[in-house]
Amino acid sequence: MILQALAFYLFAFVAVASGVMVIASRNPVHSVLFLILAFFNGAGLFVLMGAEFLAMILVLVYVGAVAVLFLFVVMMLDINYVEMRKGFLQYLPVGGLIGLILLVELTFVAGAWVAAPAAVASIPIAPPEQVHNTRALGNVIYTDYIYLFQAAGLVLLVAMVGAIVLTLRQREGVRRQSIARQIGRKRGDSIELKDVPRGSGV
Amino acid sequence: MISLDLTSALPEVFLACAAMVLLMLGVFRRAGSTRLVLVLTVVVLAVALLLIVFSPDDRALAFNGLFVTDNFTAYMKVLVLLGAALTIGMSLGYIEREQMDRFEFPVLMLFATLGMLAMVSANDLISLYLGLELQSLSLYVITAFRRDSVRSSEAGLKYFVLGALSSGMLLYGSSMVYGFAGSTNFEALAEVLAADLAFGRAPSLGLIVGLVFLLAGLAFKVSAVPFHMWTPDVYEGAPTPVTAFLASAPKVAAMALIVRVMVGPFGDLFEQWQQIVVVISIGSMVLGAFAAINQTNIKRLMAYSSIGHMGYVLVGLAAGTEAGVLGIVVYLAIYLIMNIGTFACILCMSQEGRMVERIEDLKGLGKSNPLMALALTILMFSMAGIPPLAGFFGKYFVFLAAIKAGLYALAVIGVLASVVGAFYYVRIVKLMYFEEPAEVLDRPIGAVLRLMITGTSLAMVLFLLVAGPVVGGAGAAAAALFAG
Lengths: 202, 484
Fold this sequence. Notes:
The structure holds two protein chains of two kinds. Chain A is mostly helical. Chain A is built from ten helices and no strands. Chain A folds into two domains: 7-125; 127-171. By secondary structure, chain B is mainly α. Chain B has one domain (7-481). Chain B has 20 helices and four strands. Chain B has a two-stranded antiparallel sheet. In chain B, strands 3-4 form a two-stranded antiparallel ribbon. In chain B, a hairpin with a 4-residue loop joins strand 1 (60-62) and strand 2 (67-69). In chain B, helix 14 (322-347) runs antiparallel to helix 16 and helix 14 packs antiparallel against helix 17. The chains are: A mainly alpha, B mainly alpha.
């Protein structure tokens, strides 16, 4: 038990600390690296809770794909972050005040809030001791909420079609890859064998 | 546990599959497939319409209670599909002339229609949101479809940013409702509220805050008054067939959604939401009447006109009775047909092959094209609500419901606003008949548009003949909503 608690505090502390570093570090590449660290610790927390599937997905999808994509974007876009932060101190009083008000309001809400009894009962996921992770997730996504899953898929399809419609332009003079032509090439098309007599050069 | 029953969602499943097939067809046939895809889209919508007409009437749940069909959804879906099919059908000539004939155009409209059907049939806050997003996202894209035109892109961007904001409000409201009521399902929400009422407890404050945000998000989608800013700019900037589409089917679907959410799960909070609905209704009617007077662009004028019409529809909701919902349904049916006819006329407005959209350009239409002028006159008088044209009956039913519910002030303001509104509709008629044109509009107009204009204006005149089935169906639809 004590080992679990220790692991929890370790993961939680590193996750929060790297979260702070994401916004605090000056170099955007460092920010992304700290983000990856935060993801790893999040995955650790998931494992502690018995959600090993989510932990693996977090590492695979977020670290493996999303964070690397971020890294590419950050490295390719040459943004001057120092320039962007210029007005920071100027806006600090107003922003801080609004943040403070929001915090006070949230405390009030949290103080008055009573979880509706039905809310806890209606959580449709079976406890992890009875059903293993992938099966429980599969039940939720592909059986109980299949309609929402498919509808979300259609929304994403529309987003993709929309992005293509609004941005794709057919340009003239672009050299496209033609696989049929590549395969159809013969050796003789590009290689010419010359019989060079000895001692005379080409 | 309710079984996974696909039969009641058959029209939606069919539309989704057909949309993807048409997308593939367009991709593989490449250039020159627009006309084919567009015609097939209209055919697909017609088939879906038949599937709905011949589906059983009783209330049925599908997908674990996320999806509901009854008389109300059937009636609304028929209106949505009719509006979508007619507006897509009349866009063909325009998109070919303006070189925006890419096959994605009808396919995106088909996806938008699918989203609207999902909205109408939503029985859960999550399915409500997903239907709304599917519809909105497609609409953002087709608004900006003429990407080389600054106005169209600006309209698309504006619509997108404000639409995202309203979706955010809607989601915030939904999460509050979920947190304080414990469910997102409409029936479960109704049970929670009924239990509160039965034990004499006041409904929790968080739930009411959630309801207000939910209503604000939905009011944006029908462009009711404090959330109407986007409408004139988007209507003006979007290509005309897209404006016609925006002003017809999505309005019906969003209004159906508001009615279902307010009357169904939140029926017991009537006193809370009635105040809001009364305020936004008065605001929309008054602004729709006064702001339209100064407009010079006919698409902007139609935007303010639609804001006003949504105000009248909300009068029926403010009544909160079965008669009120009947009024809403009849009003929406008439509004849809009226609007499509008017936009068919606007699509005919061209001078020497280029589209014009100033109200001034209609001058002298009474001489140059007397039949179209007559049709437009009928449509304008119907919009103004002059008996015995159809528009009058829509207003009659909603105001009658309001008076029966004791909302005299609201009904009086509504009647006064429609008198002011009559001014700008009649002004168009005056321009057509009593002023000399600088340049006449082109003739002849396309066969499809001619058919639409004739059909819709005849429907306005002869409404009394078909009033029986229209009002009878609306009565059944309203009864279905109040049965549970």
